[in-house]
User: What shape does this take?
Amino acid sequence: MPFVFVDELSEGQEEAEVYSPDEYNALMMERDTAIGRAEELDRQIDELTGERDSLMDELDDAKRKFADSFLSSPQHMKQTQRQEMREEERPSTFASLFKGRNKENAN
Assistant: This one.
């Protein structure tokens, strides 16, 4: 639609902002560049989020392995206590009592 320049607008007319083709092309170039940057940032966010989730899974695995290796469950602790109680109830000889000691140093 062609535009006409007028000094004063008549009733019912609205002022329009008109850009030259060069200005319009420059604005479109800036817009396309901004859209491209936004898409790149979205891709990076997705990539970093996936990496973070992977690291969190590794951390959870490490925590579970640590807990399984060094921390006992209540059931395992009860079983160990029962076994130790049975061993204490058995009669022992002096040889079995001092089996772990060094004969030379009495340690």
